[in-house]
Amino acid sequence: MKAPSAPKQITWIIGLICGILGIVGHYTDVPFLTEHNYTLLLVGFIALAAGTTFRDM
Length: 57
Prior knowledge:
Elements: H1 9-27, H2 31-35, H3 37-53
Helix pairs in contact: 1-3
């Protein structure tokens, strides 16, 4: 079993931005962010998980 690798910087930034937007949408009333806050959190988590699982992502 190979060890997880660090994601590329762009993958990490995309995951981080999606996660932050999801959290902001949960705690504030921004129309698009509030409607899709859990989806944004999920996309951010999947981006970070995929980035650590696959080497060239």
